[in-house]
Amino acid sequence: MSQKFWVVVPAAGSGRRMGSDIPKQYLPLNGRTVIEWTLSRFVEHPRIAGVVVAITDGDPYWQDLGFKHPALMTASGGVERCDSVLKALQQLKQVAAIDDWVLVHDAARPCLSRDDLDHLLDELKDHPVGGLLGTPISDTVKQTNASSEVIGTPDRSQLWRAFTPQMFHLQMLTDALVDAARAGKVVTDDASAMELAGFRPKMVKGRATNIKITQPGDLQLAELYLKQLNREEQAK
Ligand code: C5P
Q: Which protein residues are within 6 Å of ligand 1, measured from CB?
């Protein structure tokens, strides 16, 4: 039997860089909150078996939302993103098979297109390791030292921005995250844990509009991208 696709959404961050009292995943965006747009992409998708969202224990914003769906489960969040992902994976193990696929997607990325999601599933479903959505870098990139002096210009033709979803097998990803934590590494994405474990995740080209809401101006950008996306998807 073919492997199922599950989704883990880490949503236990405080969003300090956003400078808002409310964590960024709960900010209003085109009539809903950021996290509702993100979760709706997955819970309504016929190829997704279920979704686990990692929430800070006692998070009042999540409780107020009252977001419910038969495909949705919750797990406790952790100190770092990678801890939240691990806790959600442990929860998922109660219902998923160890070689099922898991797509980890940031709650703060509400502008994922249906096309990109389907493309990722199709590109990676027979891949031995898995991979992630990203987009090639268009700017020239500089490396600096601690004094902000430029010390190098890497070849940009081989550089990508790494997005989510990042898609790996349940047990392989769990092992990689546990090993990274044991080695004292705080990985900022799931592919990094897989790389540390010696794997080579595949980069799948997606839209540059799949932004992570991080700085205040990002919300206005997300509003525009989401309107455009909803128009396109309704026109299909
Ligand atoms: O902080 P950053 O933007 O990298 O967070 C990416 C995602 O990870 C966000 O959706 C955030 O809510 C989540 N996160 C988490 N647990 C943490 C920190 C971040 O679930 N401890």
A: 10-13, 25, 54, 77-81, 84, 106-108, 212, 214
pLDDT digit string (tens) for 89-126? 999 999 999 999 999 999 999 999 999 999 999 999 99
Match domain 5-235 to its CATH number in 3.40.50.1820, 3.40.50.720, 3.40.50.2000, 3.90.550.10.
3.90.550.10
Q: Are 74 and 7 in contact (CB under 8 A)?
A: no
First to last CA, the chain: 31
| pLDDT of 169 | 98
Give bridge partners of residue 74 from the DSSP assignment. Answer: 53
The widest CA-to-CA distance across the chain, in whole angstroms, is 56
24 CA: nearest ligand 1 atom:
12
